[in-house]
């Protein structure tokens, strides 16, 4: 590892470190935070003892 | 004829063919049927004409398991039996109650509802009922059901004059049959206790025990013990499969319009599940009783809803402004799964004044029943949502999965099972004609023969079964 770092210009190493945080942008994110349009608003839910449809919670 | 003591009866030299033990709805109905058919019948009633603490003391017993009422409070021991304190609510068991449920073991009767339907006009006359009406589907899952609040016929009051004038019926008060004697094929006699002392033995061609949903099991268990199995030769199920109708406040409802449902004279309505819903969720039958909530209760309920669902609360507040009657309490009573472990045993340590062991009642609600309660309320709540009729809130103890409260209604004082009807000798005590398996002359009347409890109050079905038993016996005895 140290062999490659010694061979690389210092400028390239700095550029790589600066770019690291941006890599996460290319990951495929889970769809858990999908928008309200994809949730069944008529789904029956029990919240605080109330039997409601999801749209009641809006 | 009505006699106040066994000695007075003996002096009359009446010769009965049939001896009925107990003068409650079942005993009185069978006696009237047999008397009308010209068959001489004696009814032995352990109590007198009126309530007394001394008589009730014979009913004391112990309870093991879930909280239950004191056994000397939950029934009455005098002429007319527990009809003296019933509320008069009437409904026949549903057709589906007689059918086996594959998800609940030991359900299903050896008879269908159609077997008792021919007797319903007679039952209406006996109990002073209006026409029975069909259920009304509210959704695919919930049906409106008729539960008649009748004048609550007190059998002793209504029929005392008729019984007194009858030449074929002798009612003997203060006469307690402490045990039956049998030889494994016939009952040979009954040992009696009258006015505080042993009164010898009594014989008749036929015996019918109609002493109630707890006492029938006690009498037969004790008789069988004393006669070495000579009274109930196939006793594996004797005392077992005992059932009640657990009853608790399950929640509240906010309704768009209270007039959406047909309500009775006190603004109550009743709902049950459809067969399809029971099959899909694999639950037992239940009844939800909708009781109108006073105005203050409505406001509190809407304030609670506002914390969870503000828009829905706004909708509810609008409904309240349009209609003062828009909320209800929901009481749930449900069918118990028949379990052999729910049973009546004889006490090993405690006896009554006549020396008969008292009852030890083992009773526990099952997980299936808890699921029936929760799913039942959800079905009702979902129906209100789907029909845009309202919203339901579960009681905290239900929503939080806590234990049953012990300060509530608990159950219906409906004592069922113990001598259940069936064809399997290991799982039942009487056959489809209410005759004890293996015995030629011993029959059982009353709710102890119920195989399942359904959700309906039992007196209507008890009376229908008693009419059927009376008709059957009038043919058997006349031969």
In this structure, how is the largest beta sheet of chain B organized? Answer: 8 strands, antiparallel
User: pLDDT below 50 for ≥5 consecutive residues: which ranges of chain B?
Assistant: none
Would you give the CATH topology of chain B?
FAD/NAD(P)-binding domain
The shape of chain A, in one word, is rod-shaped
Query: Would you report the number of β strands of chain B?
Result: 24
Strand line-up of the largest beta sheet of chain A: 1-2
How would you classify the helix and strand content of chain B by structural class?
Answer: alpha/beta
Query: What letter string, H or E per element, gives the SSE order of chain A?
Result: HHEE
Oligomer class: heterodimer
Tally of strands of chain A: 2
General shape of chain B = elongated
Main β-sheet of chain A: number of strands, strand sense, barrel status?
Answer: 2 strands, antiparallel
**Helical run tally of chain A:** 2
Ends apart, CA distance between termini of chain B: 25 Å
What structural class is derived from the secondary structure elements of chain A? alpha+beta
Name the CATH superfamily classification of chain B: FAD/NAD(P)-binding domain
CATH architecture of chain B, please?
3-Layer(bba) Sandwich
């Amino acid at each position: 590892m140290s062999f490659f770092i010694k061979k690389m210009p210092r400028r390239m190493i700095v550029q790589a470190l600066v770019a690291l945080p941006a890599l996460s942008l290319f990951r495929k994110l889970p769809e858990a935070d999908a928008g309200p349009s994809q949730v069944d608003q008529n789904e029956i839910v029990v919240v605080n003892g109330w039997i409601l449809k999801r749209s009641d919670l809006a | 004829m009505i006699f106040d003591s066994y000695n007075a009866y003996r002096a009359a030299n009446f010769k009965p063919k049939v001896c009925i033990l107990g003068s409650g709805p079942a005993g009185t109905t069978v006696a009237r049927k047999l008397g009308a058919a010209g068959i001489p019948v004696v009814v032995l009633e352990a109590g007198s004409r009126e309530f007394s603490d001394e008589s009730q003391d014979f009913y004391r017993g112990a309870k093991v398991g879930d909280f239950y009422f004191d056994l000397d409070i939950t029934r009455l021991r005098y002429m007319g039996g527990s009809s003296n304190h019933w509320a008069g609510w009437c409904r026949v068991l549903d057709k589906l109650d007689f059918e086996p449920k594959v998800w609940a073991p030991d359900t299903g009767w050896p008879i269908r509802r159609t077997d008792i339907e021919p007797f319903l006009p007679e039952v209406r006359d006996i109990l002073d009922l209006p026409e029975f009406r069909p259920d009304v589907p509210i959704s695919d899952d919930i049906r409106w059901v008729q539960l008649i609040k009748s004048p609550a016929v007190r059998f002793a009051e209504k029929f005392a004059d008729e019984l007194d004038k009858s030449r074929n019926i002798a009612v003997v008060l203060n006469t307690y049959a402490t045990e039956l004697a049998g030889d494994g094929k016939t009952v040979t006699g009954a040992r009696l206790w009258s006015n505080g002392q042993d009164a010898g033995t009594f014989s008749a061609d036929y015996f019918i025990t109609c002493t109630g949903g707890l006492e029938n099991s006690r009498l037969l268990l004790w008789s069988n013990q004393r006669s070495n199995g000579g009274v109930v030769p196939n006793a594996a199920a004797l005392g077992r499969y005992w059932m009640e109708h657990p009853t608790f406040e399950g929640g509240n409802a906010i309704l768009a319009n209270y007039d959406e449902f047909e309500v009775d004279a006190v603004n109550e309505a009743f709902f049950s599940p459809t067969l399809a819903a029971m099959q899909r969720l694999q639950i037992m039958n239940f009844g939800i009783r909708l009781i109108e909530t006073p105005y203050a209760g409505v406001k509190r309920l809407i304030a609670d809803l506002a914390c969870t669902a503000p828009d829905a609360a706004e909708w509810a507040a609008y409904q309240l402004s349009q209609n003062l009657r828009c909320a209800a309490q929901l009481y749930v009573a449900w069918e118990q799964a028949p379990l052999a472990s729910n049973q009546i045993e004889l006490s090993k340590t405690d006896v009554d004044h006549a020396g008969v062991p008292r009852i030890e009642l083992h009773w526990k609600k099952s997980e299936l029943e808890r699921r029936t309660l929760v799913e039942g309320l959800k079905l009702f709540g979902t129906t209100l949502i789907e029909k845009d009729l309202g919203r339901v809130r579960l009681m905290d103890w239900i929503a939080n999965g806590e234990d049953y409260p012990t300060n509530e209604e608990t159950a219906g004082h409906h004592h069922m099972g113990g001598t259940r009807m069936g064809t399997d000798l290991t799982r039942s005590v009487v056959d489809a004609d209410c005759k004890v398996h293996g015995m030629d002359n011993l029959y059982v009347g009353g709710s102890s023969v119920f195989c399942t409890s359904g959700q309906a109050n039992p007196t209507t079905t008890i009376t229908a079964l008693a009419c059927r038993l009376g008709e059957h016996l009038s043919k058997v005895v006349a031969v």
